[in-house]
Each structure stands twice: as structure tokens, then as C-alpha cells.
Amino acid sequence: MTASAQPVACHVWQPEPEGTGSSPDMAKWVKPLYASGEVNAVGKKLRNYFDGDDDATVNHGLNVINNWRACHSYPLLSMRMTLTTRARKVDSRVIVAQRLKRLWSIQLKLERNENMALSQMQDIGGCRAVLRTVGQVEKLVRLYERAVARNPKRGSEFSKKYDYIQRPKKDGYRSVHLVFKYRTLSRVHKVWNGLRIEIQLRSRMQHAWATAVETVDTFTRQAIKTGGGKAEWRRFFLLMGSAIAIIERRPVCPECPADVVSLRNEIKDYVQKLNVRAVLRGWSKAMTVIPSATTKDAAVYLLYLDATEGSETIKVTGFSSHREAKASDAYLATEKMIKDKPNLQAVLVSAQSLQSLRSAFPNYFADTEVFIDAISQALILKPADVASSSLVSAQPTLFAVQK
């Protein structure tokens, strides 16, 4: 199925009505307008839309991608509501947030994975829970596993589990990712069946590590998150991934010193060489936060970050639940405006409140204090800490773990 190349009003999510359990108006949610074949064909040419193709082709291609991205909004809301309910059973102070993937991130992922089809990308829509401890993360995973085991045919279909806590990535990243396919028997909702949503479960320290990487990437124009960047910064973050694993008494990252003294000393060398703490605090101090008058009681937020040295600014624009179309239009327009400008970033997100927005997306505010505190803890690690970290192994799992 195709549609004419008219602007697509991409409606976005809104927070669940607290305590009501009521469903949002289905008329507000975007439905697929394009067949998967056309979505995939556009995905293969995504770079062209940022490199000066003719206007008609660009507009149509962006409309196709924008519609496909926005189609994930309702399944994303549904799974985020479930995540919020389950996570609060484990940690009453959990931070839950969600986002639709940026066009730049979609393009980069397709370039890194030449055989990936856009219609099969599993994290176009993503939600995240940040819990206080790694034990709470694992407890939440078990809640999901038990729910699927009890009713495997009910609700969204479990697809994949990636346990980067028991098997840390080679760059130091640690977290648990669960991928589900939206599934329902409802005639009204079945139009979204099969759309994939990724759920990220992180401890507070794991989240601090991941967002510190993104902060350094943003302000130094590196690409550490995607395997690029300067070797010194990559090595530092790998070592810190292992240090945090030791603090959390979980398996350490590959290619790190086996003894804690060597690990601690190498971290210390990089902290001094890169002037890490002063650099991170400098960005935070320089950042000017400009909230719009509409941020109070907003359902979604458009974050616009200017990381240009000397004019570091984060602008936060809130949109009420009645202005979903305007939020999506503003998101796409901003992405078009900032193309080929790595010092500028934009993302449309939802968080539980304006107050929790900074905790959910600290990289946009250059807020790295939790990570800086983790550095201090890493620099006082003792050999006994490594010995204790090996005592905690993976719990029996019902989900098959992807490698």
C-alpha cells in the first residue's frame, strides 16, 4: 500500500492516565500507510535524503520514514505502561521514559548493518527503566519472564533477550534489552501487530555510564557509542564499565586487567590524562537550560541541544496531549534543519515529569555527576571487591539469551 507524498501528521505518545487504566483515543494514533517493501526501499536510500536529492523525492522518502517511525507510538505506549506497572513493583523510585529513534540514528544503524531491513529494526520505538540497583534490574527481568511463561499467547510476543550484564559488550556497555512484538486480538489495535519495541533495563550506574558516553560523543564530536572515537576515550570507558561491574558484583568486561590494582591504576592514568572530571563538569557548568512556557504539565518534550563551544544550550519545548501533531511536525522540521550539523541534536521524548526528564536523559543536559561519583568509587577499589564480584552468577532464565 502506498500513499501520496503529502505531509504526514505524526502523532506521538502521551503518558498513561494515572490510576485510570483507560485507553487513549485510537483516532489520535498513526497507522501504517506504506507497505514494508516501500519502507525497506526508502531505508536503503536514507542517506540520499540528507545529501541533496531532489525535493519531491526527499519529501516522499521522509514522509515514508516518518510515518513508519510514528506507527510505533501506540505499541510503545502500551509496552511502556506495562513496564511502568511492573518496574514500580520492584523500585518505587524507578525512572521510566521512552523515545522514537532519531533519523540520524536510524541511518547510522542501517549503514553499520548492511543486511538490515528498516521494517525489521527492533528499536525504532524504545522505552527504558532505570532502577537503583542491578539486583532490581534482574528482579524486573524475572517478572517479565514469569509473565510470559504463564501466558505465552497473551499480550505482546517475546522476541529476544540481550543480557549485557552477564555478557558485557566489548566497549563496556552493560544493560538488559528485551525485544517484544506488539500483538493483540483486538480488531481496533491489530493494525500495529508485529511492530517491534525494545525495552532497556538499567541500573542507575549503568545508565550513568551509557549517558556519559553519549555526552562525550556530543561535546567532542566523537562516535564512541558506535565503535569510533579516540582510542584513549574508548579505553577509559571500557575500564569504567569493568569497574562498575565490580562495584555491582557482576562479571567484568572483556580485555580489562584481571587484577583490581592494575585496573584502578589504568583508570587513574586516563582520568588524569584526559582530565575527565574537569571536562565533564565544565560542560555541565556551561550548559544553559531554556525551558519553554509550555513545559508545565506537558505530555512530550522536544529537546534541542546546541553543543557548540561557548554557546552550550538545551532548549526544552513541552507539548500537551492535545498537540501531538504539532510535536511531531516540530520534531521532523528540526531534524531537517540540523542535518549535517553534529553539534546540534534533537529528540522527542516522554518522561514521567519535567523533573524526571533530566534523570532520564542526562546526556542532553551534560549532567554527569553520577558517573563522576562512579569514577571516585573506581579509584578506591580493592582486591577483595573483585573476589566478591565473581560470586554473583546469572540466575536461571526463561528467555533465550541472544549473543
Order of the strands making up the biggest sheet:
3-4-5-2-1-9-7-8-6
Helix content: 40-55%
End-to-end distance, in Å? 36 Å
Taken from the alpha-carbon principal axes, the silhouette is globular
How many helical elements? 13
Q: DSSP strand (E) fraction?
A: 5-15%
SSE pattern, N- to C-terminal: HHHEHEHEEEHHHHEEEHEHHH
- Name the structural class: alpha+beta
Radius of gyration: 21 Å
Tell me the total number of β-strands: 9
Mean pLDDT: 85
Q: Ranges with pLDDT <50 over ≥5 residues?
A: 1-24
Q: Could you characterize what this model shows?
A:
Helix 6 runs antiparallel to helix 7 and helix 6 crosses helix 12. The longest helix is centred in the first third of the chain and has 18 residues, at 73-90. Helices cover 42% and strands 15% of the residues. The protein has 13 helices and 9 strands. The protein has a domain at 208-389. Residues 1-24 have low confidence and may be disordered. A hairpin with a 6-residue loop joins strand 7 (300-306) and strand 8 (313-319). Strands 3-4-5-2-1-9-7-8-6 form a 9-stranded mixed sheet, with helices on both faces.
